[in-house]
Amino acid sequence: MSVKKKIMAAVSAMCLMSVVLTGCGAGGSEKTAEGDTASTELSGSISLAGSTSMEKMCEALSESFMEKNPGVTVNIEYTGSGAGLESLAADSIDIGNASRALKDDEKAGGAVENIVAIDGIAVITDKENAITDVSSEDLAKIYTGEITNWSELGGTDQPIVVVGREAGSGTRDAFEEIMDIADKCNYAQELDSTGAVLAKIAATPGAIGYVSLDVVDDTVTGMKIDGVEASEEQILSGAYLLQRPFVMATNGEISEQSELVQAWFDYINSDEGKEAIKGVGLIIPQ
User: What are the structural domain ranges in the chain?
Assistant: First the structure.
């Protein structure tokens, strides 16, 4: 081949490469195998509402997701599981967060249960309480008002202050369902958030309450149930009684949702998303 032809061939190859690189540039679009144009960047907003117990997980996920996708805004309201699912049913949000399994009527209305994590429900008391282990039978009796003083369990002569969540709370629904005491509880106080329960128990002598396992800190004592500690190992083995799913419900299957919502769930199921979930003390579903 002549020198002139070699030069012409090299120039042609460079031009072709330039076209390919221009078509695949960041922020632009690229041709798929079928010739369709696909965006390489996400933009817009995703709206979620529901469980206060899921706040720590949702904040961790949304922060890292938006960092990866600066054109996306994730808006989250912590209104309680029941309120979140009502908003989903009204099509006013993209995802309803529930810290419990969906009910049959919610599924019948079109909500799909997407379990993203498993959480333990920790039973907590104030730090001065000598009782650190309670049987599930006695725990049920405490919440139904059959046991009213810690002395009945071998503790000091001190009234038991029974604290729980408000009606519609996913944590309350899950706790009462697992304990088989729904509509039978005798609460001294019903509080509207996980944080409020934690603070109340820490500040109230003789108090008992239940919260998401991932929020338990050194201001309270986490109780054993039937001699079993609330831990990831015991939850995965099935030995710990009080555990429930963290659900991100959608109207219809994930595959039927918008590109943004599908990308959100893709991220949750990625290695990075799973690390964010585990990083706040939750368990990845098996």
Answer: 44-118+245-279, 119-243
Evaluated on CA atoms 253, 257, 259, 261, the torsion sign reads negative
Specify the pairing of strand 161-165 against strand 243-251. Answer: unpaired
One of 3.40.50.2300, 3.40.50.300, 3.65.10.10, 3.40.190.10 is the CATH number of 44-118+245-279, namely 3.40.190.10
Are 44-118+245-279 and 119-243 in the same CATH fold?
yes
Segment 4-30, tens digit of pLDDT: 344 344 434 443 333 333 333 333 333
Q: C-alpha distances in angstroms, 143 versus 118, 163, 171, 178, 243? A: 24, 9, 14, 13, 18
Amino acid at 156: T
How many Cβ atoms are within 10 Å of 44's Cβ, its own excluded?
Answer: 12
DSSP sequence for 116-169:
EEEEEEEEEEETT-S--EE-HHHHHHHHHTS--BGGGGTS-S-B-EEEEEPTT-
- CA 62/CA 19 separation, integer angstroms: 36
* Model confidence band, residue 2 (pLDDT cutoffs 50, 70, 90): very low
Copy the structure tokens of residue 26: 């960041």
Entry pTM: 0.74
Name the helix (H) or strand (E) containing 9.
helix 3-23
Q: Give dist(CA 82, CA 243) in Å, integer.
A: 18
In CATH terms, the superfamily for domain 119-243 is Periplasmic binding protein-like II (3.40.190.10)
Band of pLDDT at residue 40, cut at 50, 70 and 90: low
- Residue pair 40/69 in contact (Cβ under 8 Å)? The answer is no
Distance separating alpha carbons of residues 121 and 200, to the nearest angstrom: 17
